[in-house]
Structures
1.
Amino acid sequence: MAADDRLTRSEDPEDELARRLREAHRRVRALPVPAETKQRLAKRLLAICELSKRDLGPAATRLESFLIELDVLILDTQSAGNIAEGD
């Protein structure tokens, strides 16, 4: 089924961008952050999706930046739970 859904890696830049966009949507949905933060991230991701319909290059660049920011947000969220309170 993954091959039908094009979730596997592809040599085609359009397919690869689509796969990465789907993965980004999954990651945003799974984030343990407030609803407002998720909504803001989802709107940014939708803007990248819209751009990808017109120009793959800039969309791929923006997606890469978005994913880096998402990684930082995830690391910040995870490490915030490890901070001891009250010293």
2.
Amino acid sequence: MLRKKWVSKRESATDKVSDEGTEKTVKDDAVHLRRNIGLLPSISFIIGTVVGSGIFIAPKGVLMNSGSVGLSLLVWALCGVLSTFGALCYAELGTSFRKSGSDYTYLLETLGPLTAFLRLWSELIFIRLATYVSLAFGQYVVEPLFMPCAAPTALVKLVSMLGVMFVVAMNCWSVSMAARLQVLLTFIKMFALILIIIPGIMALVNGKTENFRNIFDTDSLSLTKLPLAFYSGLYAYGGWSYLNFVTEEVINPNRTIPLAIIFSMVVVTVFYVLVNVAYYTMMTANELLMSDAVAVTFAGRALQVVAPGIPVLVALSCLGALNGGFFGVPRMLLVGAREGQLPAILSMIHIHRQTPLPAVLCLYPLVIIVMVRGEIFQLINFASFSRWLFIALATLGMIIHRYRFPDHPRPFKVPLAVAVIFTIVCFFIVGLSLYSDPWNTGGSFALTLSGIPVYYLTVKKSYIPKRWEKTFSDLHLQIFLEVAQQEVQTY
């Protein structure tokens, strides 16, 4: 028999969650996402999502497009500073707008529904973080089994699919379990970075400096390729905005979000620069460019005793970033559906497990499709354009919102100079990349703009056939998945 709470909101569970993050008295079985993410899980969520495949994949892309060891290290440091500026802007946005959904919500509140829908549209097309990281996970699991030969691409993608399947199952099963897994994997991945940094720095101190001679040799420098070097570096720092996807589940977000963001970005920037110094200490630039698995090559040089375990640690690091992606992005789909820009089924919560099950399941086939047809570096360049375009638009919207609504509560306020510098640099990189790699970035831009007619045909004024609408909102699907609309307002 269909329970009444599956299909309608109950008047007895309409208490709101307070601004301080503590819940008022509600019935224990009310369907809603709980506020149970404290400071440590928040820090683990950011670091665990940022530190994934990027630090093990991007060094090759940064060096390839910067042209020298010295300039590549400078790019890594500048990417850390730029990412920290952006993270601080998102700390202001996350404490000013209390809804989950990250830049989708901020674009909706500042620049309007069309821009926000294009953000949703681009996420559905590119599925950025999950695709890259899952491919890197498969690469590091399979690569050691076939060294020195190249790993079979089909096997890499099969293992990647298994990793995605595990993470999807975890996030469908339990929010708290997924959060605990994130904390555990974050500690593991930081241990992996320390394991790389210590022998590299020790070798450098002991006089192994030959790879740092003439490090600013500019013979291979191409200004048109430099934005792509920043893309690869910024990809490695990607994920600092993912805590904002789950704002409604963070305890005391006014305090937790800024603290978690500042601490996490300082730690990640320092670690990333030191890891790259360690790489170059043990490998020449040419050797790094020839390696498909940089950390594995490094381990073979500096960590012979524990070298077989390095790929495992790297794979677990990628798994942590993948888990963070599948934890955060479904919340954006949920908010988009709640705002009427996606099918209503995606806004529903599992009535027993309190997880956004439909939104998580929706991502799985999309990730698999993109994964099957993509190659890692091509995917990074192709989708980074869209990602940074919307981040720049979100911070531009923040600046505009400040002047339009000066009295709007802003518990955390970033210096205006930081927001302006970050926004200008983002637009500059986005614009220059159209010139540097017009095929990939132009295609990304075109696919993003293709969402405009979709918006006007399906959201602004729906021309969707009634039978299709019934498919997405069918009560039988709701009963099968055991999901219902939220019964408690969490923002």
3.
Amino acid sequence: MRAKIVYCALAAVLVVYFVLVGSRGVMLVEQGTAITVAFGLAVLVLPFIGAWFLYQTTKFARDANRLARELEAEGGLPVDELARTPGGRIDRDSADEVFARRRAETERAPEDWRSWFRLAVAYHDARDTPRARKAMQRAIALHDGRPVRA
């Protein structure tokens, strides 16, 4: 729950920032000179790009949470069986062992979104965030019946 509150607070701060940057862009365009109009238009692009990224990130998180709830209802969420260091961090060898099992499960059932979800969790535990995100995107696409890129 804490993570959701932090995410919402940061998203709200970003939206305020987008509004402030956008207003500066409008002010530059209103100046009317060639240079200020060019800079103003360039500045106006930034809030749109930022808003698009914020939307995509929020949509991804909501979709992943939707799959997690569904998998939890089925009793298929991966169990936390990872060894931890005294400081609480995940032991790398333990994460690699679980990852190998999840990868084998996914290779046996490449069209099952559940196996891709569990593989995404294993990637995350192994601190490979880019691959975790790609695996989760694949799980979401398979679940929703959308085409999956190779």
